[in-house]
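Hey L., structure's done. Input below.
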Amino acid sequence: MSASELDERLAAACAAARAVGAVARETFHRAPRSHARAFKGPQDYVLESDAEVERLLRTHLTAAFPRDSFFGEEAGGEFGSDVWIVDPIDGTANFARGIPHFGISIAFVRNARTEIGVIYQPITDELYAARRGAGALLNGRRMSVSGLEDPKQALIEAGWSSRRPNESYVAMVGCLYQAGAQVMRTGSGALGLAYVAGGRTDGYCELHINSWDALAGLLLIEEAGGWVNDFLAGDGMTRGNAVIGCTPALKNLITAAMNLPSR
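Output:
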């Protein structure tokens, strides 16, 4: 696929993210807040907004590129050789609780390699975008990872997943603290990775995350000069994987904390 074809897809993904982001933002602001919430699993919320935004994304992208496959977190789809993989609202728990920290994640994958990554944060109107080999941008301005080298000055986000034992998560965070790093959690893996790409934080790690949450952000970090693990190894696309994205000097610290091999 040529650079011009990928640029066309990047432009379409950015336009789709902004269009559906406006819908998500409006819904967030007008939604009544209630303590009665629906769940599909531990800390896993059910929102009509997720399905609505995903339907709009599917409409935008499949209309523009009818030969491409599409897979969304909510309704599924198929993983073809050219596939759009999306999370319509990453940070659903935040959205449901009225916390304005959530994003729309869009990745285009060709032959098991992510070529385009777009993440849009509707509340702050921040659009993160990358095409492989062309750098990473935040609202049109080139961005880069922090370059920080001292773990004692590092700010690392550690995501949590019910798919791994709590003891493993506690051990991982404990290792990071012992190295002197500060550890945080904000509830959106996609935005957590985007923040690393923009140099706001120095690393993001999670013992298990799904591809629709991670692929766009990992490409952003790569194109911003950071280091990422081989997320698509094995069946990472369909079943998820452990994830690391960080400024290069923190690679060994975070992989050791997660008991993963570095490369």
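Confidence is low (pLDDT under 50) at residues 34-39. Helices lie at 3-30, 48-64, 92-97, 166-178, 189-197, 211-223, 236-239, 251-257.

-- N.
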